[in-house]
Design a protein that fits this description.
The chain has 7 helices and 15 strands. It folds into 2 domains: 131 residues, no CATH class; 164 residues, no CATH class. It is of the alpha+beta class.
Amino acid sequence: MNHRARLMLGLVAALGSTGAIVDSAALQQPAAAAFEVASVRLWTRDAPISQRITGRGLDFTNQTMRAVLRFAFRVRDYEMFGPDWLDEVRVNIQATLPPGATPQQVPEMLQRLLIERFGLVARREMRTMDAYRLVVGKEGLRMREVEPVNDLDKLIPRDPGFTSPAAVALADTVADTPDGAVRTVMGNMGRTTVTARTMYTLRVNAERRTQTLDAARMSMAELAAVLANNMDQPVADRTGLSGLYEFKVDLPLDATTVVRLRDVGLPLKDPPGLSESRAVEALGLRLERSRGPINVLVIDKLNRTPIEN
């Protein structure tokens, strides 16, 4: 894999989660439903990264423990507190659904699997945190409302910098989440996210230390999620807008991406006056500061090695 491809794949995590936008659910006790058969193994080197859920089962390959927990409990990174090694340990999980089960039950089944195979002990608690509310500005919207379009199968050119089999496999992936398919296409120092209704691109401008959010069709819940990932703080959609919108705006680079770009020796400038607050004001929106209790997941115990299959 060449230098550019390694940089691009490293930026996947820095650009944030691409899963469907969901609210954090309360921590549930293991339900009666469980996977019919499940295989859990530590990651083997050079395996491609994949996350698929079908009507028959689940296939997670080369997933970090943080990603598995994030999916199982429907939380974002700032809503989860656990051991430092969650990003180091990677696992392969293949599981079959029992007759009559649906993909919507997979997160709870995965919770049970983590308890049984990794000795997971977790709890929910309220922690006071700084947060933001995304609301409509006093002068009204400056975005164009558009109709939903299903572009999940749209041909999106692959970045020519991806040449190795591993890079090609990671350049265009589909995650079948309980809330629907989410396609992620990497290229041009960024990623495009596509669902059955929406499509938007986050493109890194390394020299200017910015990233451009180019939304063909985006919900306000998705925008709030992008802002939350960028700011590493809770952002709640309080716009009351249920439609999809087309817009283009520059955001500052998040701290994780800045570190990754510096690690590979790319020069970075400090963009004057650029912030998430000013960015959304250009769209006719506003970020309001708030502080209050956030329902978080606390990992008290989790084994690095699973129980044998």
